[in-house]
Give the backbone structure.
Amino acid sequence: MTSPGRRADRFSVSARFRSLVYATRGIRIVLRTQHNAWIHATVSAVVVLGGLALRIDRSDWIALVLAMVAVWTAESLNTAFEFLADVASPGLHPMVATAKDVAAGAVLISATGAGIVGLLVFVPRVLKVLP
């Protein structure tokens, strides 16, 4: 992305590769620094394994993947926001604390929605296989 009035750089494979390296580094930072990311990773693994074990259909996979992506995106944006807020206001500022709470609330909203999607997908199937 370029700013107004600035010429876009030409496409290059090496620049796209560097972007991929930076993005991968960002994911590692989230996993390394955010305890909730480990919870998301564990739940994501359980969901994938459960979906495979129960042989869920394509539309259920789509719903689950979109729900997981929403949670991971919210967690990643929340983490980036927290890092930026800490640089902008290293001391405790009430508005920064409020903004961080709102960003964390966005993660909670997406995780709650993902949990509901998981229940809608898995509960009927689990009830079918129980004696």
